[in-house]
Amino acid sequence: xTWLRVLLSRLAGRGRTPAELSEEMAAHRALLAxxxxxxxxxxxxxHAEARRQFSGTTQALELYYEQRRIPLLDHMSQDVVYALRQxxxxxxxxxxxxxxxxxxIGANLAIYRVLDAVLFRELPVRDPGGLVQIQFLEGSDxxxxxxxxxxxxxxxxxxxxxxxxxxxxxxxxxDGGRGFMVSGAYFRTLGIPAQIGRVFxxxxxxxxxxxxxxxxxxxxxxxxxxxxxxxxxxxxxxxARAAIIGVAPAGFFGETPGAARDxxxxxxxxxVITPGDRINGAAYSWLSMIGRLRPGVTARQAEAALDxxxxxxxxxxxxxxxxxxRVRVAPANRxxxxxxxxxxRPLWLLMGMAGLVLVMLCSNLANLLLGRAAVxxxxxxxRLALGAGRGRILRQLLTESLVLCAAGVALAIPLxxxxxxxxxxxxxxxxxxxxxxxWHQAIFTVAAALACTCMFGLAPAFAATRVDVHSxxxxxxxxxxxxxxxxxxxxxxVAQISLSLVLICGAALFARSLWNLRHQxxxxxxxxxxxxxxxxxxxxxxxxxxxxxxxxxxxxxSLPGVRSAAVSAFGPMSSLLRTVGISTxxxxxxxxxxxxxxxxxxxxxxxxxIPMVAGRGITAEDRAGAAPVVxxxxxxxxxxxxxxxxxxxxxxxxxxxxxRDAMQVIGVARDVRFSSAREPFGFVLxxxxxxxxxxxxxxxxxxxxxxxxxxxxxxxxxxxxxxxxKIGAIRNYAEAFEGGLGxxxxxxxxxxxxxxxxxxxSYIGVYGVLSYAVERxxxxxxxRIALGAGRAGIYRMVLGExxxxxxxxxxxxxxxxxxxxxxxxxxxxxxxxxxYTLPLLxxxxxxxxxxxxxxxPARRASRxxxxxALRQD
Length: 873
Known about the structure:
There is one protein chain. This protein has 5 domains: 2-69, no CATH class; 71-121 and 340-477, no CATH class; 128-333, no CATH class; 487-521 and 741-873, no CATH class; 534-727, no CATH class. 53% of the residues lie in helices and 14% in strands. It contains 28 helices and 22 strands. The strands form 2 sheets. Strands 1, 2, 3, 4, 5, 6, 7, 8, 9, 10 and 11 form an 11-stranded mixed sheet that branches. Strands 12, 13, 14, 15, 16, 17, 18, 19, 20, 21 and 22 form an 11-stranded mixed sheet that branches. Residues 475-481 have low confidence and may be disordered.
């Protein structure tokens, strides 16, 4: 290990100092001179000969230094110290550069952290690479499965170490918590132990077992202040009391990223905490399955082994259309759910825009460094004349850029952390998103810093070292290097403006798309008030809220300040959705049909402001015992009956028409958007709530006066009917859609911010380049003015240069904007295929900004005093 001792000794800088070494060499010279004197030489000759024998003292010192130290590290430390001294001498430039880099790198880091959590990060479980999702496919569409099918597969399969099922039905707790039912192998499959207490197992998931629950760390902290006394307490879950037996580890959020779980309970509790017997009923398809592959088993081998079992027990789950079905084994190392599908495209778009902004920021910094290099031309010339190599100066200049970037990264890290949390909140991603930093984020930060250093540091450093020493030492140095530097600065500005045009165009497109979403024709009145009535999924709660239909209907219609009112089940913006099949004698249900069933009271269409296209709406005559009737929306009527009239025709809520379940169509209502601003107009069946009894999940009001007063009166009226009935949000229809615009608001807000930054950078870039050009050409402009050139001619000269820059920029940027507009068509809403109005307006806006930026340098040039200009060097 001699080499290690030598390396550590060099790093520690051990050995004699230069002064000690010089003193030792002087002693040796004195001894040698004394020896020569004893041999008969004069003192002067002896000392001269001794000095001759010890010639090259400086070289000896340098050789010893190189043998005892690491010169590269010493030179780097010297470069860093010199760079800090240079940057401290220009505090304005340093602060501006550091803040610019912090903003650019911080924005990219924030978006990358969210992107990493959504798309790249694996579940915080044991060996996530071994997890797979077992999917039952009808055609190419994944379907959930029933518990009986899961039970048979879990018992008979031989390719998985373990298999569990998880429900998508949330369980509300009285204190606001939300949990989920999972099968007994859940924690064993994921390899999750309890931090206190224990997790439940298959033995806790058997009929008759004591009801138990496992809490998440966040829920334990929020509700029990991390007290160990929580073990043994109970959770009230609809009709059951579950004993708390353990707490999951911190950082474990479940199997679905972005969906925080507060607690987990065994699947065997389902019959007592949710309606229906889903444990033994094959009619309920409500489970997703995740397993862990056995060692040596591949996903394809697992598919081949599980497919016969799926086919054997397919009768235990619902298959609606009788199409071909098969099993698919998909990787589940990043969990399940649709978080990646919902946010992948918006996040990649934002990442691209943030990258463009970072390139612009680096371009702006490169222009600033070019200006500093021009000021330091004399200094660099002196250093070259004294023997410094161009490589040594280049390294020094790059070190200054690296120090700037390091300071920017130090500020960007906290900015990125806060920005990631803000992005997640703005997009309504969910409290379960795992945003903790990791080694891959550190690699991204370092890579971004190095890329920035290369982008804004290399070209100015090379330009600074490519000077003629003789010209640089003169007071006046108008060289070809200055012309090259000016051309390079112009190229940077063209790139800046081109990217700015693309970013501004993107910001305008996203802002306009959000405006279109908010101001579209929803098909109903925007001012209708929606009163949400949460429904507990117990038989008692369903029956109780079903009995409140007519008391609530009559009470709401008697309120002063309310023009009309109606009640509904599974209506607009309801948290519950009920879908059914729809068929006619001529047309069975199709795989692509998505049919929503809405149970409504009389006055529903009048209150919602939904126009009737044909026939009539639901009235008081459509009571229980009367002939079953239904109102279709336009989309359903068109698909079922084509161009013919739907009034008087019959439909059935089955995949295949059944006369005993037939309902007569009495009206066709206009298409409306029920759940989100982007939701396609699917099929909607409006049936009388008197003929299809259902619990009240919503009340709709048409206020005659102040909506706030009507909302307060409605809340009081609900409490007067049933003081214990829970009331959710009361809001108008337009406000209700805001919660579903997370992606669009995210894109519009961030793109708008980036667009403003790009516009400011373009202004600064044009102003800086033209100001520098005017300063460099002061002598020339003075001569022009002395020879009779007027102010208009000087204006034309400066603005002409700006016009050339703008023409080149608009040509490049305009092409990019048109390409970006075409690429974003699928993300935007409400744009025609050939609508390029916004790119044109963005180009006009950028042109005005460039003109404003070039006006001040042109004005200053036109007002130069020719005498002072000619006296300048």
